[in-house]
Amino acid sequence: MAIIELSGIKRHYNVGEVTVRAIRGLDLSVDVGEFVAVMGPSGSGKSTLMNILGCLDKPSEGSYVLDGLDLSSADSDEFATIRNRKIGFVFQGFNLLARTTALENVELPLFYNHNSSRRDQNERAKRALSAVGLGDRYGHTSAQLSGGQQQRVAIARAMVNDPAFILADEPTGNLDTEMTLEVISLFQELNDAGITIIMVTHEPEVAAYTKRIIVMRDGAIISDRPVENRGRAAADLTAWKAQNAEVQV
Amino acid sequence: MTIRRIVSLASRSIFRNKVRSFLTSLGIIIGVGSVIVMVAIGQGSQEQIRERIASMGTNLLMVLPARGPNQINRLTLDDITTLRNEASYLSATSGEVRLSENVVGGNGGTDADTYWSTSVFGVEPDYLSIKQWNVGTGVFFTEQEDSDRSKVAVLGSTVAAKLFGTSDPVGQTVRIGTAPFIIIGVLATKGSNGMGNDQDDVVMVPLETALTRLSQNRVLDSIQMSVVREDLMGAAQTEVTAILKQAHKIAATGNADFNVMNQSQIIETASSTASTLTSLLAAIAGVSLLVGGIGIMNIMLVSVTERTREIGIRMSVGARRRDILMQFLTEAIILSLTGGAIGILMAIGIVWGMSSWAHIAAIISPGIVVASAGFAAIVGIFFGYYPARKASNLYPIDALRYE
After folding, report:
1. Per-residue tens of pLDDT for chain B, all 403 residues
2. HSE (side-chain half, CA atoms, 13 Å) at A118
3. pTM, to two decimals
């Protein structure tokens, strides 16, 4: 079952007299349970695609059906509600609120969801934090957490509302190898549990952990292929740790 | 979002920046504080005037000749007699003539060698009780002395001091105009009347004496009366007007050649000046409240820019424009309301200090407290709206990318 259905998407901006064509006709379908990597050089239109997928931007042309919902005529309030209920964001720069505890950060999406009680929010946020392995760090602020931990808080925040899919924009761009493997193994774990993930990345070795790689160039998809011999980040992490430990000895 | 959630969210971000929040509120604190203190001082002095006028006598009613072109003063002793016979709500009545005379004589006072220019009141014995006044030393004149046109005088304490210094004037003689008068008493000190006049700068002589020996004619400058009970003031006023109209042969609907004024009308006239002053003070202090409001807008604008990324994050997880608007607006309102509350407490402290140490009359009325708290809230909404609106109009993509 397709959770995302993009057809004939075009997006152009008018910058003064010049029209920038960021996406020039794109069709994409993502099924439930997929783990998709979107790759491509800068300027290829992948950020614009992410913004459109994330309901942060509207395509100039084409239709977007998300989880059976046609978004062509949605206004900014409806977009906000969809972002709240259907999409979990993970950013390169973590984008956690400063001077705010991990728990409060994770609660944030629930804060804008009227259907949940305060107590329910708290419990769900705690559950999400435990799921990313930070069950003991509720009260830590971003400054007291490592980059990998911050990104895990961000992932917990993305998951807390049980979204239709997680949209990750270069989630490992700011992380070293160990933390990258940590985050990717977490993504694989979530994906194994049935969560759909779409991830923009520059790094082929990170993309190799996904199930499907889409390559963009000049505002269009030039390659779309499944990943063979998919790596397991958890295993690689253990191996990497073992190797590093030897070096230290 | 429920109001409780918005408020808790806004207060959390206020507490995250304690110093800045305090400095922001400071404008409102000072603004609200100074409005209340200024108005308290204004109302305090108004109340003082009121008290002093009330000290002239309670339940006071007076008849004054009408002033204006073609108006002739026709208040006479006959009117007093008529009032005494016919009016049912009056407990005491006294005619009054006011004359300006030079008083000569005395010893020991600063002006004993020359003379002292003062007001000489020709009054009847009831006058003292009507004006709630007492004799300090000696006695006041009696009805007998009044009808005998005795040349006796009672000095106000200022006149006594000017002519006799510390020595006792009772039994001494002074010359008022050309006639010698024996001093039979000195009045207790009464003080200023609230309009800057020294009520003790006076000499009182019997009314008949004044009319026959000092005055040029036999008309009265006023009739002073006490009404039996305060709630009968209105009835007494109507009755006195009717009686005197009849006595002066004026139709009930015609224009009277006199005015009947009660205490509150006199107080109103006197305190209107003070209330103008109060408004002026409040207006000046209000400007500082306005400046405080602009301070809030300034900081909120900075805050919106500084927190652009936070706004972006909130929008990306599902905050609607309305949610962002409410969050920032609530912050501004909380800042100004807390500022207002602190300002009110501060003002109460200052006013208390002023009245207990500096003895400045200042009264905080609940009305002004409510008004300035309300004004602080309005300032918060007014000056918080523009920054909040600016925050809510950000595009999530731009806000997220903002460094």
Report:
1. 578 878 888 888 888 888 888 988 898 899 899 889 988 888 888 888 777 777 666 688 889 888 777 777 788 899 999 999 998 899 899 999 999 999 988 777 777 777 889 999 999 999 998 888 889 999 999 999 999 999 999 999 999 988 888 888 899 899 998 889 999 999 998 877 656 678 899 999 999 999 998 888 888 999 999 998 878 888 899 999 999 998 888 888 888 888 888 877 777 777 777 788 888 888 888 888 888 888 888 888 888 898 899 999 999 999 999 999 999 999 999 989 999 999 999 999 999 998 888 777 788 888 888 988 888 888 888 888 999 999 999 999 889 888 7
2. 7
3. 0.70
> How many other C-beta atoms lie within 10 A of the C-beta of residue A162?
11
Are B362 and B37 within 8 A, CB to CB?
Answer: yes
Give me the interface pTM, i.e. the ipTM. 0.92
Tell me, rounded to whole angstroms, the distance of Cα B77 from its chain centroid: 35
In the Cβ-directed half-sphere of A161, how many Cα atoms lie within 13 Å?
31
A80, A97, A157 member nearest B319 (Cβ) = A80
Cβ atoms within 10 Å, residue A218:
14
CB B286 within 8 A of CB B352: no
How many C-beta atoms surround the C-beta of residue B39 within 10 A? Answer: 27
How far is Cα B358 from Cα B255, in angstroms, rounded to an integer?
Answer: 50
Chain A positions with Cβ closer than 8 Å to B: 51, 54, 56-57, 76-77, 80-81, 83-85, 89, 91, 95-99, 108-109, 111-114, 118, 157, 161
Selected residue of B14, B311, B316 to mutate for chain A interface (largest A Cβ count, 10 A) = B316
Among candidate residues B372, B364, B303, B301, the one with its CA nearest the CA of residue B337:
B372
Residues from chain B contacting residue A58 (CB–CB below 8 Å): none
